[in-house]
Amino acid sequence: MQELTNSDFGNVLSAAPMRAFDPSVLGFLDDVSQKILNTSTTRQFPDLATLGFFLRRKNLDRIGRGYLGDGKVFLMGRGLAFHVGPANVPLNFAYSLVASLLAGNPSVVRVSSRPFPQVDLFVDALNAAFDAAKMSNRVSILRYGHDSAMNERLSQTCDLRVIWGGDQTIQTFASIPVPARATEIHFANRYSAAVIDARDYLETCEAREIAQKFYNDVYPFEQNACTAPKLVFWLGEDVVIRQAKERFWSELKQTMHRAQYQPAEGVGVRHFKSVAQLAVEAPIRRSISHPSLTVIEAETASACRLDHGASEGFFLERSIQHLGELSDALDQRCQTLAFVGDLKTDILSCVAEHGMKGVDRVVPVGTAGHFSFVWEGKDLIRLMSRSFEL
Predict the structure, then answer these.
(1) If DSSP codes are grouped into helix, strand and coil, which group holds residue 10?
(2) Could you tell me the Gene Ontology terms of the biological process aspect for this record (predicted)?
(3) d(Cα 203, Cα 191) in Å, to the nearest integer?
(4) Which positions ≥6 away from 25 have C-beta within 8 Å?
(5) Dihedral sign from CA coordinates of 204, 206, 208, 211
(6) What is the Cα–Cα distance from 381 to 26, expressed in whole angstroms?
(7) Which of 67, 190, 305, 321 pairs with 130 at a CA distance of 20 to 30 A?
(8) Partner residues linked to 298 by β-bridges
């Protein structure tokens, strides 16, 4: 086991819960924010800069007012929180930790063994802020392999267990019980999609900006984040959709060129195998084949496989005439639906009208990866705290 933070692990395990949005925690996180934003290396990692901006005191105070502002609710931490972070997004664990600290919980976080510079830089900022805030007895970040003994120790000690690692990790921890009164929060494997109003897109003067936003949603983590669209729906008439597709994918290729995006070695072979596998299962046809962009047209709703597993710039696309067709293509595994056009209200109406179990987030293209404390329909602050009516 490797402890990344300069913490007293034993004291963290025995630390008491605090009231939510305690000023000492807000001050500590603001200090972490300043240390992140004032480090020159941060500019190399947009996700780290976004985290630093999120942690500003002004932002956290605004969020806190949303939970405590009416003065009718008192929120208190549950106790020790044990977080199991995912391996696909470097700083996902940091937002889980922040939510837990704001909710009033001392926290132990297990991070992925995959090396990410952003993780090291975030931990450096935490360590630098510990002394001034005396918070080293409330945060411990660990890196260890498949150590069942450590998993059992932390699970049997915790009051809150948060698992971000997907289906397989959830299954692994299912055999490790937590105390009867402990709260568990699970985040299973999820997939995301986008819907583009073809006419609205063609009439906009922001085609280049939209392509950049879509690129930001997809390519920074090689399309491996659960928020990255893997399926694109085109809404409108066929002739309009054909024009919109041609313009959109062309703009995206130009965006990749400007960004000097370099696909990983062997991506072409992996995409070819994915096309072959999909062709066996459902009617499809290839629309675009490019070193870092493969687009496959799904000819039926059943061909809209969100779990096809391909990434690194691999998309299924399908034309629809009305939003109601989404209900046949998107199941409960769909997490985020990003949109282009004035569609949000209509999408939410569609979700309600068809009783869709999936689609937990409806956001504009370009913001799919932006974190919120309400994630996948779960209010993390409220789930991580105890609520008292005043």
Answers:
(1) helix
(2) bioluminescence
(3) 29
(4) 18, 101, 102, 104, 135
(5) negative
(6) 14
(7) 67
(8) 284
Token duo for residue 260: 């000097």
Q: Which residues pair with 336 in a beta bridge?
A: 361
pLDDT 10s digits, 321-379: 999 999 999 999 999 999 999 999 999 999 999 999 999 999 999 999 999 999 999 99
Q: Tell me how far the alpha carbon of residue 51 is from its chain's centroid.
A: 12
DSSP 265: T
Mean pLDDT of the chain: 92
∠ CA 332-326-208 to the nearest 5 degrees?
Answer: 110
Taking the domains of the chain in order of start, what are their residue ranges?
A: 2-189+372-389, 191-359
Tell me the one-letter amino acid at 390. L
Report helix, strand or coil for 270.
helix
**Cα torsion 384, 362, 37, 221: sign:** positive
Report the candidate in 203, 206, 168 with the shortest Cα–Cα distance to residue 187.
168
The answer regarding whether domain 191-359 maps to CATH 3.40.630.10 reads no
- Going by pLDDT thresholds of 50, 70 and 90, the confidence category of residue 302 is low
Residue whose C-alpha is closest to residue 13's, from 185, 215, 204, 153: 153
- Residue 302 token pair: 């059943």
CATH architecture, range 2-189+372-389: 3-Layer(aba) Sandwich (3.40)
| Helices 23-37, 57-68: crossing angle, 10 deg rounding | 150
Backbone angles phi, psi at 320, to 5 degrees: -135, 150
Bridge-based pairing state of the strands 293-298 and 284-290: antiparallel
pLDDT tens digit sequence for 184-213: 999 999 999 999 999 999 998 799 999 999
Hey, what are 12's tokens?
A: 């963290």
Residue 100 near residue 83, CB atoms below 8 Å: yes
Distance of alpha carbon 308 from alpha carbon 51, whole angstroms: 30
